Amino acid sequence: MATLLSPAADKPTLTPLAAQILDTLVHRIGKDEKAARPHDWLAATIFTVRNDIIEKWMESTREAHAKGAKRVYYLSLEFLIGRLLRDALSNLNQTHDIAGALSSLGVDLAMIEEIEPDAALGNGGLGRLAACFMESLASLDLPAYGYGIRYVNGMFRQRIDDGFQVELPENWLQHGNPWEFERRESAYFIGFGGEVVGTETGHVHWKAGEGVEATAVDTPMVGWRGKRVNTLRLWTARAFDPIKLDQFNAGDFEGALAGQTRAETLTRVLYPNDSTAAGQELRLRQEYFFSSASIQDIVRRHIQYTGDIRTLPDKAAIQLNDTHPAVAVAELMRLLVDFHDLGFDEAWDITRATFGYTNHTLLPEALESWPLPLFERLLPRHMQLVYAINAKLLREAKAKGADDRAIAAISLIAEGGERRVRMANLAFAGSHSINGVAALHTDLMKKTVFADLHALYPERINNKTNGITPRRWLQQANPGLTALIREAIGDDFLDDAEKLSALDPFADDADFRSKFASVKRANKVALAQHLKELMGIRIDPDAMYDVQIKRIHEYKRQLLNIVETVALYDQIRSHPERDWVPRVKLFGGKAASSYHNAKLIIKLANDVARRINADPAIGGLLKVAFVPNYNVSLAEKIIPAADLSEQISTAGMEASGTGNMKFALNGALTIGTLDGANVEIRDRVGDDNIVIFGLTADEVADQRARGYNPRAAIEASPELSQALSGIASGVFSPDDPDRYRGLIGGLYDGDWFMLAADFDAYAAAQRQVDTRWQDREGWNAAAIRNVARVGWFSSDRTIREYAKDIWGVL
């Protein structure tokens, strides 16, 4: 890590900005500059920068109020925002000035940026997409709020012990968060349990059995060039009676604090293990807690500024980011019917006109559903409303000729086996727009998980291909490449990423290719140094950096990559006479704490790395590393250094992906299946600048329908058979020879994710990659064309499409 600069003995007169930072250090932090530590300088810098942000934030809010602007409300259980200082400085164009001011005080800006903790508010692409969207909403000058939970620990911190994932709390808030503002005036009652009772007027009243208070904590989201500052509003939970003194004084200390502990549990961790009944209940409590608080806040704001609840769809567009906040549909109905005295049909029309729903997955287990007894016990009034909505929905389906099979598929209540409340169906029914996040994904939504709902409402499903913010993922993460692009084509691309297309001719310019290669190598040297400090591993910056960093899941097929790595290892040892390309295989990602196979895949990656990295027979031709605790800040180091981007999910199972976009924007070639946004990336960059292999989504479905035989596929592939045999027999796990027997046996017996079916094609594609790498001029030309042609995948473009087609704010 970088260190503080040496303070000058006699500093010149300080600039106003340096003086301001120093004044903040003394009067806000309470430290003399000689006693200040790096974290003190970080806080002082953030508080100083924050002053300008607050002014723009208030100005943005006043302007939206004055114009009576329609607001976007983005509800997401995750916001993977990463570090904020560098992002804010870049978007405010203050990086140079702050760096100079700090330097005059003997402080290195890069050093203090590195010690800012990552906000532990998300896990993977869903949360990072939400963060990109918040930045783009502000950059496009669109009034918006993001709503989520202020997790104290959030997603766990991952440590690797003897190759195994160990989950530890991510204490990102242990020293406070200088970016946030508590809004005690924005506090709401959130009820659970109890019963629904009738009143003398014929109304119903939900008498909750318990309740907690949700209090807002706001973080400013700064747009490009400071055009607008929007609000990320996160909810904290507290008991209304934090301590029961009578119990405390009677000696029951734990019981006296039980209510506060129960409330705080709601905001303790992201995605509690839901393999137990208690874990399921906590997950549902979390989702209702933040959804209810958010909907109450939106309705309160609307009434405050318009006075007429019936105009809600004209002034508010609420977007559900996946199924996690789907209970918000029932919650808005509850408020409209029970508190604003609207008739059911009118309330339902308002609700549907207000909500939009983004689906992020076709995996059945990710389309959330809740056991009906659990849902009814926790949310009895909402259960009544779900039944009422379902009755209206099914009567409409029946009137349009739906048969019993279609009605069973459309129903909000799954009847097969355990009765469950289907949250995806609720979100679909309660929204006027349902969008997929890539063209292929949207098409598959219509044909698979929502086929019958689509037949009932054929106008609702639309596509909005995901995007990434080029500010963070190019300008900030890769300043060397950004400077090179500016030198070549000017600054227009900074405001419009699609202007990167002007770079395309430079792929044929030998001098530019040489400069591009130098930037890439510098990024690789920086990553190599970081991994040496982090893990003690030495990697060669002249080798190909082959990277797969993402959530660990069987459909993402890290296992396919590992098995091919073992096969490559066997080939290098067996054929030392061949001209092998030196490779560094980098893996990173977290497995859900209850996902046994995913955690076993992490262990396998580490076992394979330990064996290969210690084998002198391969002469440094192959290195493998699993980088622990993958997060946004680590991605910002790895992605600019990557040469090859692994996007190898089973076709038809990845909704979109955004990592594929980030890698391409930073000049990595993609090796991947025709899945998710890979299809559209291929269409943009051209067949010659991407490496595609494997079954298509239709072919996967056809193989499954015809009775796929993985054993036959394995036995037909000598390389695959040898690699699997070595893994299963304990070659890579001599301490426990049976460790991977079940994992590999599952491929012979089932192989739902088609690893065996795609292996030979994948191995052949990797050898094609080797051949391309040996022509470095051609490789660099293809990498430059990737950078030039993926500007369309900016989240600015995505948000414009949402704003125009769904939200009605453009």
Salient structural properties:
single chain; 810 residues; 9-stranded mixed sheet; 6-stranded parallel sheet; 35 helices; 50% helix; 15% strand
Summarize the structure.
The chain is α/β, with parallel strands linked by helices and 810 residues long.
Can you give a write-up of this model?
This protein is α/β, with parallel strands linked by helices and 810 residues long. Helices cover 50% and strands 15% of the residues. The chain has 35 helices and 22 strands. A nine-stranded mixed β-sheet has the order 5-8-9-2-1-10-11-15-16, sandwiched between helices. Strands 19-18-17-20-21-22 form a six-stranded parallel β-sheet, with helices on both faces. The chain has a three-stranded antiparallel β-sheet with strand order 12-14-13. Mean pLDDT is 95; it is low at 6-10.
DSSP helical segment count: 35
- According to DSSP, the number of beta strands is 22
- The radius of gyration computed from the alpha-carbon positions, rounded to a whole number of angstroms, is 27 Å
Strand count, sense and closure of the main sheet?
9 strands, mixed
Low-confidence stretches: 6-10
Spatial strand arrangement across the major sheet? 5-8-9-2-1-10-11-15-16
